[in-house]
Design a protein that fits this description.
The structure is a single chain. The protein is α+β, with helices and mostly antiparallel strands. It contains 4 helices and 10 strands, in the order ααββββαβββββαβ. The protein has helices spanning 2-48, 52-69, 130-141, 235-244, and strands at 79-83, 86-90, 107-114, 118-125, 150-154, 158-161, 195-198, 211-214, 227-233, 262-267. Strands 5-6-8-7-9-4-3-10 form an 8-stranded antiparallel sheet. Strand 3 and strand 4 form a beta hairpin. The termini are far apart.
Length: 269
Amino acid sequence: MAQERKAQERARAEKAAMWKSILPTLIGVIVIAIAAVAVLTQGRQKKTAVPETEISAAASSSAEAEKASGSSADSSGQTESADGNGSYTVFNASSLKGCYDISSDELTYVQIKVKDYGTITAALDETIAPESVKNFVALAKDGFYDGLTFHRIIDGFMIQGGDPNGNGTGGSDKTIKGEFDDNGIENPITHVRGAISMARSQLPDSASSQFFIVQSDSTFLDGQYAGFGYVTDGMDVVDKISKDAKPTDNNGSIAKENQPVIESVTVIS
């Protein structure tokens, strides 16, 4: 009996010694595994939720690349067209990097006059985004945009306006269908420099009156926002507005007294 008890004690001692020797290694493996899971989780979060500061930085990098390549929304190769309201540049898809091919006969031209800055001319494509174009044109003809402002500006990214509240919370008396791929509507208008697109909340069909003009290539927006045209003249105006902007936060919010005023939006053809 005594020998059996000694054998059991010896076995317990050997097992305790074994655990004592492998315990540090086991703890190390667990720590490494936890760290790896944390890194992978953080990586997935970065891919699915890009903060405003990273969006701005990415857009700024695109802007520098654009300047180096000489590509812009008002590149040469576009032609002048006369109208009772003056001349404007006819859209030429070949002058825009990554742009789809369309006929100028299918476009509606509008001019956005910004106080103290000048005029931005844009060509809107109703064949691609009919709801967006009809809504924008109707609001313009009603004088809805006259006196409103660009309330959100991020240099190297975009300028956003058309909110009667002037803070990103307002709109007209109706919302429209979001005409973009992720909402089940094919839209080949890509968010390169000069694209004009509808702003919205997280709800896909929440676009109303707010719109934005892309200053630097931001194709990460493709499929998520309804592009409905391109600027043909006046990207120098967009650049000046962006350069002068003094945002109060990383979201590009502009103090009411510093918001550039939209004097009018005129449909010219």
